[in-house]
Design a protein that fits this description.
Number of helices: 7
Number of strands: 10
Strand order of the largest sheet: 5-4-3-6-7
Shape: elongated
Length: about 220
């Protein structure tokens, strides 16, 4: 049996692989770009394609949302810098939407391979629709993958970012479908004493001793 090559796939909690790349805003080193801010790094299959155009436009239109949350955007596809620039200009001319964030020209597929964006059963020459949420310490906190034929959900990307930042700030966990303003999950007790304190705590919404919720502040 032919031995299959093991490919690197970054995981949640891993240090984000560093790289230098040509982008539409100039040559960038990722660790410099990531310094003191969150980064949402996302790939698209190809320039001048319809689904990718809608997605990149959605990211561009939400630039202020991400900026308010100390988050930078960075796109990527296996296209040349000339193709990227022409596409950015075309979309701006046709729709008025401007992709001002850096888009990596990953012709040699170096970054795509570093981040496991190439899924051979989808395509060996086009990156899938990957999204990496990377915190200011350079740690990968959340990963999303979408196939070539299904666009991403921008509302979920925004919700996930706010949830990650809220969980960090409030040192809590968040329940299914959590949205801003809703209660957080209180960590479960680890001792009998903590369990008794939990049961007698009137500030929590108690479902049971292991499942309780509390009000949390809203991040600006």
């Amino acid at each position: 049996m032919e031995e299959q090559q093991v490919k690197f796939m970054p995981r949640i909690g891993d240090k984000a692989p560093d790289f230098e790349a040509i982008t539409t805003t100039g040559n960038l080193k990722f660790s410099d770009y990531n310094k003191n801010s969150w980064v949402v790094l996302f790939s698209h299959p190809a320039d001048f394609t319809p689904v990718c155009t809608t997605e990149m436009s959605a990211f561009a239109e939400e630039k202020s949302f991400f900026a308010q949350r100390n988050t930078k955007l960075m796109g990527l596809s296996i296209d040349s810098i000339h193709s990227h620039l022409a596409w950015v200009n075309n979309v701006k001319e046709k729709t008025g939407v401007y992709f001002s964030f850096p888009i990596i020209a990953d012709l040699d597929m170096k970054v795509s391979k570093l981040y496991g964006m190439l899924h051979d059963n989808e395509s060996s020459t086009a990156a899938v629709r990957a999204v990496f949420f990377i915190d200011p310490k350079g740690t990968i906190r959340l990963i999303m993958y979408y196939p070539l034929n299904v666009g991403r959900n921008m509302e979920e990307i925004k919700r996930a970012l706010v949830a990650l930042q809220t969980a960090d700030e409030c040192k809590c966990a968040l329940p299914v479908n959590w949205k801003v303003g809703e209660k957080a999950i209180v960590p479960p007790p680890k001792t009998l004493e903590e369990m008794e304190e939990r049961i007698n705590n009137t500030e929590y919404e108690m479902i049971d001793f292991y499942l309780a919720k509390k009000e949390i502040g809203v991040l600006v």
